Amino acid sequence: MTTLPSPTETGAAMSAMDAVYQRRSVRHFTAKTVGPEVIRRLMDAAVHAPTAMHQEPWGFAIIEDRALLDRLSESAKECVRKEAAGDHSPHATHVLDLVNKTGFHVFYDAGSLIVIYGKSQGSFVTADCWLAAENLMLAACAQGLGTCVIGFAVEALNLPEWKAELKIPEEWTAIAPIILGVPAGATPPVPRKPPQILAWR
């Protein structure tokens, strides 16, 4: 496997608005790995997000071990199955069809998983962590990388056994698991509804 060069090596550049409009949820990746220096740059971008009362309540875990990601994927799928058991709504049926599909991997075989954890203090911890997540994803897009939030993994990551294995202190809560890698081809845009303006005075 080869490691992705830094944007300074390739001359890549993208405006903030370009990143906003070109960011995609990527679910198909090449075998190229993202080097530690790139991941550090992305985390540095993440911690420059707005933060309520300057609390900076975020922490990060980076998981790249393939066997660990495989086991975590299976654990996440089991959590989803338990949550959806007995629920016959169209949404639950769709979710179960997805996680029960042969060969489905929660992390889509991405090379890296970055988990943003929040420390349980104050009312805006979750919002701060999601702001950091958006910074990270936009910075990744600007460097030609693909990301996708994996909501399926949140419950498993917060299980005591996974916190113990990853050596995550009890007071930290997994909020935003984000896969990261080199996209295998283009991901088409998804149409968005125009903004629904409720008031403008």
Regions with pLDDT < 50 over 5+ consecutive residues?
1-11
Counting helices, strands and paired strands, the structural category is alpha+beta
Distance between the termini: 56 Å
Q: In which order are the strands of the major sheet placed? A: 1-2-4-3
| Percent range for β-strand residues | 5-15%
What Rg is obtained from the alpha carbons, in whole angstroms? Answer: 18 Å
DSSP, total strands:
4
Q: Give helix % range.
A: 25-40%
Shape: globular
Can you tell me the CATH topology?
NADH Oxidase
Task: Estimate the mean pLDDT confidence.
Answer: 92
Give the helices and strands as they follow along the chain.
HHHEHHEHEHHE
Number of separate domains: 1
CATH architecture: 3-Layer(aba) Sandwich
The CATH homologous superfamily corresponds to: NADH Oxidase
CATH class: Alpha Beta
Largest sheet: 4 strands, antiparallel
